[in-house]
Amino acid sequence: MNLTINSDRLLSELYHLARLTDCPQTQDKSLPEPTEAVTRIVFTPRDLEARAWLTALAEAAGFTVRTDAVGNTFLRWQGTDASLGAVGTGSHTDAIPHAGMYDGTVGVLGGLEAMRALKESGFTPKRSIETLMFTSEEPTRFGIGCIGSRLLGGVIDADEADKLLDRLPETDPNAPVGLTLASVREAAGFSGSLVSVKLTPGYYDAWVELHIEQGPLLEREGIQLGIVTGIAAPASFRYTVEGFGGHAGALLMPYRRDALCAAAEMILSVEKHALAANAKSGGVDTVATVGMVGVHPGAVNSVPSRVTLTLDIRDTDVARRDGVMAAFHADIAAIEQRRNVKIREETINADAPAKSSEHIVDTLEAICKAEGASYKKMVSRAYHDSSFMATVAPIAMIFIPCRNGVSHRPDEYSTPESITLGTRVLALALAKLANE
Ligand code: GLV
Ligand code: MN
Ligand code: MN
User: Fold this and answer.
1) Span 353-375, pLDDT tens digits
2) Where are the beta strands (DSSP E) in 213-290?
3) For ligand 1, what atom is nearest to the CA of residue 234?
Protein backbone atom coordinates (compact mmCIF):
# COMPACT_ATOMS: atom_id res chain seq x y z
CA MET A 1 0.00 0.00 0.00
CA ASN A 2 1.34 3.41 -0.96
CA LEU A 3 0.18 5.28 2.12
CA THR A 4 0.96 8.98 2.55
CA ILE A 5 -0.19 10.89 5.63
CA ASN A 6 -0.81 14.48 4.57
CA SER A 7 0.97 16.19 7.48
CA ASP A 8 0.31 19.73 6.26
CA ARG A 9 -3.42 19.07 6.04
CA LEU A 10 -3.52 17.41 9.47
CA LEU A 11 -1.44 20.13 11.14
CA SER A 12 -3.46 22.93 9.60
CA GLU A 13 -6.65 21.27 10.86
CA LEU A 14 -5.20 20.93 14.37
CA TYR A 15 -4.36 24.65 14.32
CA HIS A 16 -7.81 25.51 12.99
CA LEU A 17 -9.43 23.57 15.82
CA ALA A 18 -7.11 25.23 18.36
CA ARG A 19 -8.47 28.60 17.29
CA LEU A 20 -12.02 27.48 18.15
CA THR A 21 -11.42 28.42 21.77
CA ASP A 22 -13.16 30.40 24.47
CA CYS A 23 -9.83 31.29 26.05
CA PRO A 24 -8.41 34.60 24.95
CA GLN A 25 -5.13 34.25 23.06
CA THR A 26 -2.30 34.38 25.56
CA GLN A 27 0.17 37.19 25.24
CA ASP A 28 2.79 35.17 27.14
CA LYS A 29 5.78 35.42 24.81
CA SER A 30 7.74 32.89 26.87
CA LEU A 31 5.48 30.15 25.55
CA PRO A 32 6.61 28.37 22.42
CA GLU A 33 4.32 28.50 19.38
CA PRO A 34 1.41 27.98 19.22
CA THR A 35 0.27 30.28 21.95
CA GLU A 36 -3.44 29.49 21.84
CA ALA A 37 -4.82 28.35 25.16
CA VAL A 38 -7.78 26.15 24.42
CA THR A 39 -11.03 26.15 26.37
CA ARG A 40 -13.81 24.25 24.64
CA ILE A 41 -16.47 23.04 27.00
CA VAL A 42 -18.98 20.52 25.73
CA PHE A 43 -22.21 21.91 24.20
CA THR A 44 -21.08 25.53 24.33
CA PRO A 45 -21.42 27.45 21.05
CA ARG A 46 -17.68 26.92 20.50
CA ASP A 47 -18.02 23.15 20.85
CA LEU A 48 -20.97 23.15 18.46
CA GLU A 49 -18.91 25.18 15.99
CA ALA A 50 -16.10 22.59 16.21
CA ARG A 51 -18.59 19.76 15.67
CA ALA A 52 -20.08 21.43 12.57
CA TRP A 53 -16.60 22.02 11.15
CA LEU A 54 -15.55 18.40 11.77
CA THR A 55 -18.75 17.12 10.14
CA ALA A 56 -18.11 19.25 7.05
CA LEU A 57 -14.51 17.97 6.80
CA ALA A 58 -15.64 14.35 6.98
CA GLU A 59 -18.42 14.83 4.43
CA ALA A 60 -16.03 16.61 2.07
CA ALA A 61 -13.79 13.53 2.30
CA GLY A 62 -16.70 11.29 1.29
CA PHE A 63 -17.55 9.81 4.70
CA THR A 64 -21.01 9.65 6.20
CA VAL A 65 -21.70 11.29 9.54
CA ARG A 66 -24.21 10.37 12.20
CA THR A 67 -24.72 11.55 15.74
CA ASP A 68 -26.39 9.74 18.62
CA ALA A 69 -28.65 11.10 21.36
CA VAL A 70 -25.75 12.42 23.46
CA GLY A 71 -23.89 13.89 20.48
CA ASN A 72 -21.23 11.22 19.96
CA THR A 73 -20.30 11.77 16.32
CA PHE A 74 -19.43 8.85 14.01
CA LEU A 75 -17.51 9.52 10.78
CA ARG A 76 -17.99 6.33 8.77
CA TRP A 77 -16.22 4.81 5.81
CA GLN A 78 -18.49 1.99 4.69
CA GLY A 79 -16.72 -1.32 4.20
CA THR A 80 -17.54 -3.88 1.51
CA ASP A 81 -19.16 -6.24 4.03
CA ALA A 82 -21.73 -4.34 6.07
CA SER A 83 -22.55 -7.47 8.09
CA LEU A 84 -19.16 -7.37 9.86
CA GLY A 85 -18.32 -5.44 13.02
CA ALA A 86 -16.55 -2.15 12.29
CA VAL A 87 -13.06 -1.03 13.25
CA GLY A 88 -13.16 2.14 15.32
CA THR A 89 -10.84 4.91 16.29
CA GLY A 90 -11.31 8.39 17.73
CA SER A 91 -11.12 10.56 20.81
CA HIS A 92 -12.51 13.89 22.01
CA THR A 93 -12.39 17.53 21.00
CA ASP A 94 -13.65 19.06 24.24
CA ALA A 95 -10.97 20.75 26.31
CA ILE A 96 -10.76 21.72 29.97
CA PRO A 97 -10.35 25.42 30.79
CA HIS A 98 -6.96 26.81 29.72
CA ALA A 99 -5.81 23.59 28.07
CA GLY A 100 -3.57 22.75 25.15
CA MET A 101 -4.43 21.94 21.53
CA TYR A 102 -3.41 18.26 21.26
CA ASP A 103 -5.25 16.38 24.04
CA GLY A 104 -7.98 14.37 22.27
CA THR A 105 -7.83 16.37 19.04
CA VAL A 106 -4.88 14.35 17.69
CA GLY A 107 -7.00 11.21 18.00
CA VAL A 108 -10.01 12.71 16.22
CA LEU A 109 -8.25 14.59 13.42
CA GLY A 110 -5.59 11.84 13.23
CA GLY A 111 -8.38 9.28 12.84
CA LEU A 112 -9.99 11.30 10.06
CA GLU A 113 -6.61 11.78 8.36
CA ALA A 114 -5.87 8.05 8.65
CA MET A 115 -9.17 7.23 6.89
CA ARG A 116 -8.57 9.89 4.20
CA ALA A 117 -4.98 8.75 3.58
CA LEU A 118 -6.09 5.11 3.30
CA LYS A 119 -8.84 6.10 0.86
CA GLU A 120 -6.43 8.17 -1.22
CA SER A 121 -4.01 5.24 -1.34
CA GLY A 122 -6.69 3.17 -3.06
CA PHE A 123 -7.31 0.87 -0.08
CA THR A 124 -10.74 -0.79 0.19
CA PRO A 125 -11.82 -1.89 3.68
CA LYS A 126 -13.84 -5.05 4.17
CA ARG A 127 -15.05 -3.94 7.61
CA SER A 128 -16.32 -0.39 7.92
CA ILE A 129 -13.90 2.04 9.54
CA GLU A 130 -15.17 4.79 11.83
CA THR A 131 -13.61 7.79 13.51
CA LEU A 132 -15.59 8.71 16.58
CA MET A 133 -15.71 12.07 18.33
CA PHE A 134 -16.95 11.40 21.88
CA THR A 135 -19.11 13.80 23.82
CA SER A 136 -17.69 15.17 27.08
CA GLU A 137 -14.53 13.17 27.70
CA GLU A 138 -13.63 15.96 30.09
CA PRO A 139 -15.55 16.22 33.37
CA THR A 140 -15.65 20.04 33.34
CA ARG A 141 -19.31 20.56 32.56
CA PHE A 142 -21.12 17.61 34.13
CA GLY A 143 -18.68 16.57 36.86
CA ILE A 144 -17.89 13.16 35.37
CA GLY A 145 -15.60 12.33 32.46
CA CYS A 146 -16.23 10.14 29.38
CA ILE A 147 -20.02 10.56 29.34
CA GLY A 148 -20.28 9.61 25.66
CA SER A 149 -18.16 6.47 25.95
CA ARG A 150 -19.75 5.45 29.28
CA LEU A 151 -23.15 5.52 27.52
CA LEU A 152 -21.81 3.62 24.49
CA GLY A 153 -20.49 0.95 26.85
CA GLY A 154 -23.59 0.96 29.06
CA VAL A 155 -21.35 1.77 32.03
CA ILE A 156 -23.59 4.60 33.24
CA ASP A 157 -27.36 4.35 33.65
CA ALA A 158 -29.10 6.41 30.97
CA ASP A 159 -31.58 8.07 33.39
CA GLU A 160 -28.85 8.88 35.89
CA ALA A 161 -26.77 10.41 33.09
CA ASP A 162 -29.64 12.65 32.01
CA LYS A 163 -29.93 13.94 35.59
CA LEU A 164 -26.27 15.02 35.77
CA LEU A 165 -26.12 18.65 36.82
CA ASP A 166 -24.57 21.32 34.65
CA ARG A 167 -21.63 22.63 36.70
CA LEU A 168 -20.76 25.57 34.48
CA PRO A 169 -22.08 28.01 37.12
CA GLU A 170 -19.20 26.88 39.38
CA THR A 171 -16.75 28.48 36.96
CA ASP A 172 -18.94 30.97 35.09
CA PRO A 173 -21.12 33.18 37.30
CA ASN A 174 -23.23 34.09 34.26
CA ALA A 175 -24.27 30.50 33.53
CA PRO A 176 -27.83 29.49 34.48
CA VAL A 177 -28.08 27.22 37.53
CA GLY A 178 -30.06 23.98 37.83
CA LEU A 179 -29.76 22.72 34.24
CA THR A 180 -29.26 19.01 33.62
CA LEU A 181 -27.56 17.06 30.86
CA ALA A 182 -31.06 16.29 29.52
CA SER A 183 -31.88 19.94 28.92
CA VAL A 184 -28.39 21.00 27.83
CA ARG A 185 -28.09 18.27 25.17
CA GLU A 186 -31.61 18.97 23.94
CA ALA A 187 -30.78 22.66 23.55
CA ALA A 188 -27.61 21.66 21.67
CA GLY A 189 -29.74 19.66 19.22
CA PHE A 190 -29.25 16.13 20.56
CA SER A 191 -32.51 14.51 21.57
CA GLY A 192 -33.93 11.03 22.09
CA SER A 193 -33.49 8.50 24.86
CA LEU A 194 -29.95 7.96 26.10
CA VAL A 195 -30.74 4.25 26.29
CA SER A 196 -30.37 4.21 22.50
CA VAL A 197 -26.70 5.26 22.74
CA LYS A 198 -25.51 1.88 24.01
CA LEU A 199 -23.72 -0.06 21.29
CA THR A 200 -25.05 -3.41 20.16
CA PRO A 201 -22.70 -6.32 20.89
CA GLY A 202 -20.14 -6.71 18.11
CA TYR A 203 -20.66 -3.18 16.74
CA TYR A 204 -16.89 -2.74 16.90
CA ASP A 205 -14.65 -5.70 16.14
CA ALA A 206 -11.60 -3.67 17.20
CA TRP A 207 -10.88 -0.23 18.61
CA VAL A 208 -7.63 1.82 18.57
CA GLU A 209 -7.26 5.34 20.00
CA LEU A 210 -4.37 7.67 19.15
CA HIS A 211 -3.50 10.13 21.93
CA ILE A 212 -0.64 12.19 23.30
CA GLU A 213 1.07 10.49 26.23
CA GLN A 214 0.35 13.31 28.72
CA GLY A 215 3.40 12.12 30.66
CA PRO A 216 7.18 12.33 30.19
CA LEU A 217 8.34 8.76 29.63
CA LEU A 218 8.50 8.51 25.84
CA GLU A 219 10.33 11.81 25.47
CA ARG A 220 12.67 11.08 28.36
CA GLU A 221 13.58 7.68 26.94
CA GLY A 222 13.80 8.93 23.34
CA ILE A 223 11.11 6.48 22.16
CA GLN A 224 8.85 7.36 19.24
CA LEU A 225 5.61 5.60 20.18
CA GLY A 226 3.84 4.02 23.14
CA ILE A 227 1.63 0.96 22.77
CA VAL A 228 -0.83 1.02 25.65
CA THR A 229 -1.35 -2.33 27.37
CA GLY A 230 -3.76 -1.06 30.04
CA ILE A 231 -5.39 2.05 31.50
CA ALA A 232 -5.24 2.92 35.21
CA ALA A 233 -8.48 2.85 37.21
CA PRO A 234 -9.86 6.33 37.97
CA ALA A 235 -12.22 7.34 40.76
CA SER A 236 -13.51 10.70 41.85
CA PHE A 237 -15.46 11.99 44.81
CA ARG A 238 -17.08 15.23 45.94
CA TYR A 239 -16.97 16.28 49.60
CA THR A 240 -18.95 18.84 51.53
CA VAL A 241 -17.54 19.95 54.86
CA GLU A 242 -20.05 21.72 57.12
CA GLY A 243 -18.58 23.74 59.98
CA PHE A 244 -19.67 26.93 61.68
CA GLY A 245 -18.94 30.38 60.31
CA GLY A 246 -18.80 33.80 61.81
CA HIS A 247 -16.94 37.07 62.21
CA ALA A 248 -13.18 36.66 61.66
CA GLY A 249 -12.47 39.01 64.55
CA ALA A 250 -15.18 38.16 67.02
CA LEU A 251 -15.39 34.36 66.71
CA LEU A 252 -12.54 33.39 69.02
CA MET A 253 -10.20 30.50 68.23
CA PRO A 254 -11.37 28.12 71.00
CA TYR A 255 -14.92 28.19 69.61
CA ARG A 256 -14.16 27.68 65.93
CA ARG A 257 -15.41 24.85 63.69
CA ASP A 258 -13.60 26.08 60.60
CA ALA A 259 -14.64 24.06 57.54
CA LEU A 260 -11.59 25.10 55.53
CA CYS A 261 -9.15 24.00 58.22
CA ALA A 262 -10.88 20.61 58.24
CA ALA A 263 -10.65 20.48 54.42
CA ALA A 264 -6.95 21.33 54.60
CA GLU A 265 -6.40 18.33 56.85
CA MET A 266 -8.32 16.15 54.39
CA ILE A 267 -6.14 17.29 51.49
CA LEU A 268 -2.96 16.49 53.37
CA SER A 269 -4.39 13.20 54.60
CA VAL A 270 -5.10 11.82 51.15
CA GLU A 271 -1.69 12.97 49.93
CA LYS A 272 -0.06 11.19 52.86
CA HIS A 273 -1.87 7.92 52.20
CA ALA A 274 -1.14 8.01 48.45
CA LEU A 275 2.55 8.55 49.19
CA ALA A 276 2.48 5.73 51.74
CA ALA A 277 0.90 3.37 49.17
CA ASN A 278 3.69 4.17 46.71
CA ALA A 279 6.34 3.74 49.39
CA LYS A 280 4.88 0.35 50.30
CA SER A 281 4.70 -0.89 46.70
CA GLY A 282 8.02 0.67 45.73
CA GLY A 283 6.20 2.19 42.73
CA VAL A 284 4.51 5.40 41.64
CA ASP A 285 1.15 4.05 40.53
CA THR A 286 -1.08 5.70 43.13
CA VAL A 287 -1.98 9.33 42.43
CA ALA A 288 -4.43 11.51 44.35
CA THR A 289 -5.40 15.09 43.56
CA VAL A 290 -7.70 17.67 45.13
CA GLY A 291 -8.21 20.01 42.17
CA MET A 292 -11.23 22.07 43.19
CA VAL A 293 -12.04 23.76 46.47
CA GLY A 294 -15.04 26.02 47.05
CA VAL A 295 -15.16 28.14 50.20
CA HIS A 296 -18.37 29.60 51.62
CA PRO A 297 -18.92 32.46 52.10
CA GLY A 298 -15.47 33.28 50.70
CA ALA A 299 -14.76 36.59 52.40
CA VAL A 300 -11.48 37.77 53.91
CA ASN A 301 -13.12 38.51 57.26
CA SER A 302 -15.44 35.53 57.55
CA VAL A 303 -14.70 32.10 59.05
CA PRO A 304 -15.48 29.46 56.40
CA SER A 305 -18.69 27.63 57.29
CA ARG A 306 -18.89 25.29 54.30
CA VAL A 307 -16.28 23.92 51.93
CA THR A 308 -16.70 21.69 48.90
CA LEU A 309 -13.79 19.80 47.44
CA THR A 310 -13.17 17.18 44.79
CA LEU A 311 -10.82 14.22 44.94
CA ASP A 312 -9.45 12.45 41.87
CA ILE A 313 -7.65 9.22 42.77
CA ARG A 314 -6.20 6.67 40.36
CA ASP A 315 -4.23 3.48 40.50
CA THR A 316 -3.30 0.57 38.28
CA ASP A 317 -4.41 -1.64 41.19
CA VAL A 318 -8.01 -1.15 42.38
CA ALA A 319 -7.37 -2.88 45.74
CA ARG A 320 -4.54 -0.45 46.50
CA ARG A 321 -6.76 2.49 45.51
CA ASP A 322 -9.44 1.14 47.86
CA GLY A 323 -6.82 0.81 50.61
CA VAL A 324 -5.92 4.50 50.31
CA MET A 325 -9.62 5.38 50.47
CA ALA A 326 -10.11 3.26 53.59
CA ALA A 327 -7.23 5.03 55.36
CA PHE A 328 -8.61 8.39 54.19
CA HIS A 329 -12.09 7.51 55.53
CA ALA A 330 -10.59 6.74 58.95
CA ASP A 331 -8.93 10.17 58.94
CA ILE A 332 -12.19 11.81 57.86
CA ALA A 333 -13.97 10.27 60.86
CA ALA A 334 -11.22 11.54 63.18
CA ILE A 335 -11.31 15.04 61.64
CA GLU A 336 -15.11 15.17 62.06
CA GLN A 337 -14.79 14.30 65.74
CA ARG A 338 -11.84 16.48 66.61
CA ARG A 339 -13.07 19.55 64.74
CA ASN A 340 -16.80 19.04 65.30
CA VAL A 341 -17.62 19.31 61.60
CA LYS A 342 -19.79 17.14 59.29
CA ILE A 343 -18.16 15.70 56.19
CA ARG A 344 -20.33 14.24 53.43
CA GLU A 345 -18.91 12.15 50.60
CA GLU A 346 -20.50 11.65 47.18
CA THR A 347 -18.99 9.15 44.74
CA ILE A 348 -18.84 10.55 41.21
CA ASN A 349 -17.22 7.50 39.66
CA ALA A 350 -15.15 4.51 40.74
CA ASP A 351 -14.06 2.68 37.62
CA ALA A 352 -12.14 -0.48 36.90
CA PRO A 353 -8.84 -0.49 35.02
CA ALA A 354 -8.97 -1.42 31.32
CA LYS A 355 -6.84 -4.04 29.63
CA SER A 356 -5.77 -3.88 26.00
CA SER A 357 -6.38 -6.73 23.57
CA GLU A 358 -3.25 -8.82 23.06
CA HIS A 359 -4.13 -9.19 19.40
CA ILE A 360 -4.31 -5.44 18.78
CA VAL A 361 -1.15 -4.84 20.82
CA ASP A 362 0.61 -7.50 18.73
CA THR A 363 -0.72 -5.88 15.55
CA LEU A 364 0.61 -2.46 16.60
CA GLU A 365 3.93 -3.98 17.59
CA ALA A 366 4.32 -5.67 14.20
CA ILE A 367 3.51 -2.42 12.40
CA CYS A 368 6.05 -0.46 14.50
CA LYS A 369 8.70 -3.06 13.67
CA ALA A 370 7.88 -3.00 9.96
CA GLU A 371 7.96 0.81 9.95
CA GLY A 372 11.24 0.94 11.88
CA ALA A 373 9.57 2.99 14.64
CA SER A 374 10.88 2.62 18.18
CA TYR A 375 8.12 1.79 20.68
CA LYS A 376 7.49 0.89 24.27
CA LYS A 377 4.61 -1.00 25.85
CA MET A 378 3.20 1.09 28.65
CA VAL A 379 0.28 1.79 30.96
CA SER A 380 -1.88 4.88 30.47
CA ARG A 381 -2.18 6.84 33.68
CA ALA A 382 -4.69 9.26 32.21
CA TYR A 383 -8.13 7.84 31.52
CA HIS A 384 -9.52 7.87 28.03
CA ASP A 385 -12.72 7.00 26.21
CA SER A 386 -10.95 3.73 25.41
CA SER A 387 -11.33 2.85 29.12
CA PHE A 388 -15.06 2.46 28.47
CA MET A 389 -14.85 1.23 24.87
CA ALA A 390 -12.99 -1.70 26.46
CA THR A 391 -16.31 -2.88 27.90
CA VAL A 392 -17.75 -3.41 24.40
CA ALA A 393 -14.75 -4.04 22.14
CA PRO A 394 -11.16 -5.25 22.11
CA ILE A 395 -9.09 -2.07 22.47
CA ALA A 396 -5.58 -0.68 22.41
CA MET A 397 -4.06 2.79 22.22
CA ILE A 398 -1.12 4.46 20.51
CA PHE A 399 0.70 7.19 22.43
CA ILE A 400 2.93 9.86 20.95
CA PRO A 401 5.41 11.85 23.07
CA CYS A 402 4.54 15.32 24.29
CA ARG A 403 7.12 17.88 25.30
CA ASN A 404 8.17 17.68 28.95
CA GLY A 405 5.20 15.39 29.53
CA VAL A 406 3.02 18.49 29.75
CA SER A 407 -0.74 18.26 29.20
CA HIS A 408 -3.88 20.12 30.33
CA ARG A 409 -1.81 23.29 29.88
CA PRO A 410 -1.54 25.74 26.98
CA ASP A 411 2.12 24.80 26.38
CA GLU A 412 1.16 21.19 25.62
CA TYR A 413 3.08 20.27 22.43
CA SER A 414 3.80 17.29 20.19
CA THR A 415 6.01 17.54 17.13
CA PRO A 416 4.57 17.30 13.61
CA GLU A 417 6.82 14.24 13.11
CA SER A 418 5.29 12.45 16.12
CA ILE A 419 1.75 13.31 15.07
CA THR A 420 2.42 12.10 11.54
CA LEU A 421 4.07 8.86 12.67
CA GLY A 422 1.28 8.13 15.17
CA THR A 423 -1.32 8.74 12.46
CA ARG A 424 0.56 6.52 10.01
CA VAL A 425 0.75 3.61 12.46
CA LEU A 426 -2.93 4.15 13.27
CA ALA A 427 -3.84 4.05 9.56
CA LEU A 428 -1.87 0.86 9.00
CA ALA A 429 -3.50 -0.73 12.06
CA LEU A 430 -7.00 0.27 10.90
CA ALA A 431 -6.28 -1.21 7.45
CA LYS A 432 -4.96 -4.46 8.92
CA LEU A 433 -7.84 -4.85 11.39
CA ALA A 434 -10.47 -3.89 8.80
CA ASN A 435 -9.48 -6.72 6.51
CA GLU A 436 -9.33 -9.47 9.15
C1 GLV B 1 -8.45 12.80 31.16
O2 GLV B 1 -8.61 13.94 30.77
C3 GLV B 1 -7.91 12.51 32.45
O4 GLV B 1 -8.12 13.33 33.39
O5 GLV B 1 -7.23 11.47 32.58
MN1 MN C 1 -7.83 15.84 28.97
MN1 MN D 1 -7.69 13.25 26.34
Assistant:
1) 999 999 999 999 999 999 999 99
2) 225-231, 233-242, 246-247, 287-289
3) 5
CA of 144 to the centre of ligand 3 (A): 14
The angle that helices 259-281 and 318-339 make with each other, rounded to 10 degrees, is 150
Tell me how far apart the terminal alpha carbons of the chain are, to the nearest angstrom. 16
Q: In whole angstroms, what is the distance from residue 39 CA to residue 11 CA?
A: 19
Sequence-distant (6+) residues with CB within 8 A of 276 are: 327
Distance of CA 70 to the CA centre of its chain: 16
Q: In angstroms, what is the span from residue 151 Cα to ligand 1's centroid?
A: 17
Rounded Cα distance, 31 and 84, in Å: 48
CB 100 within 8 A of CB 409: yes
| Phi, psi of 131, rounded to the nearest 5 degrees | -105, 130
What is the length of the chain? 436
Question: Phi then psi for 343, rounded to 5 degrees?
Answer: -120, 120
pLDDT tens, residue by residue, 133-185: 999 999 999 999 999 999 999 999 999 999 999 999 887 888 999 999 999 99
Separation of 214 CA from ligand 3 center, angstroms?
8
Query: What is the DSSP-derived secondary structure letter of residue 142?
Result: T
CA–CA separation, 200 and 112 (whole Å) = 23
The residues, any chain, with a CB within 8 Å of residue 7's CB and separated by 6 or more, are 416, 419, 420
* pTM of the entire predicted model: 0.93
In terms of C-beta density within 10 A (0-12 exposed, 13-18 middle, 19 or more buried), how is residue 317 classed?
middle
Residue to substitute in 384, 387, 402 for testing ligand 1 pocket (most ligand atoms within 8 angstroms of CB)? 384
Q: Which helix (H) or strand (E) holds 97?
A: strand 95-99
Q: 418 in helix, strand or coil? A: helix
Q: Are 369 and 385 in contact (CB under 8 A)?
A: no
Measured from the Cβ of residue 136, the count of other Cβ atoms closer than 10 Å reads: 31
